[in-house]
Design brief:
This protein is of the alpha/beta class. It folds into 2 domains: 144 residues, no CATH class; 49 residues, no CATH class. The protein is built from 4 helices and 8 strands, in the order αβββαβαββαββ. The strands form 3 sheets. It has a 4-stranded parallel beta sheet with strand order 4-1-5-6, sandwiched between helices. The radius of gyration is 16 Å and the shape is globular. The structure holds zinc ion. The site of zinc ion has 3 residues, from helix 4.
Amino acid sequence: HPVYSPMALRQAPHIGPYQNQDVLQLQSKAGSPYVFYLNLAAVMSGSTPLNGVTRENMYRAWQSIADQYSMFNLNVTTNVAVYNAARAANPLRTGIINFINQDGRSFAPLHSFGTTAAGTLYRNPGSGFDYGYGIGMTGAHEIGHQMGMNHDGGGSGGEYFEGIAAYQWGPIMGNYWMGANWANQLWTWSRGEYTTATNK
Ligand SMILES: [Zn+2]
């Protein structure tokens, strides 16, 4: 599990350790009219995650997604009431991804933020990663498609760039699974700051 610095513990709500929050009430930027809803309903029984997933891991899945959108005025939430209110006010400011209780290959419709078309997030374990972090990486990638981004390709990875091992860096819209072999992976958005980039 990650070790948090003292500074991280004082930061925004999506940073820091799990402190027994209700995982169906999470909001990264409460009050923002722009809302992205991570719908956990199908993988929860009441307040308990299904399939032996801990609440801490469910929290970290949300946290890992919220982190990647924290520079925007966007509330990444697991609270359906927050989503429904924002959608009723203005659906053009909302998006949704459904976490479903099946294994499969996650996918999402391109440019679907601002519509009610949902992405689909499967429950597969993040192989090689902490479960919540692995699901969070996939969620951030799929929501990236919903925000209009295509894949970061190039090099031997083809459509999915495999990162730069020397820096333990990889693009979220590329093959972020490569980092499972690295001790301290950094994964970020990219606008093609590497020589073989296919997407700038
Ligand atoms: Zn993709």
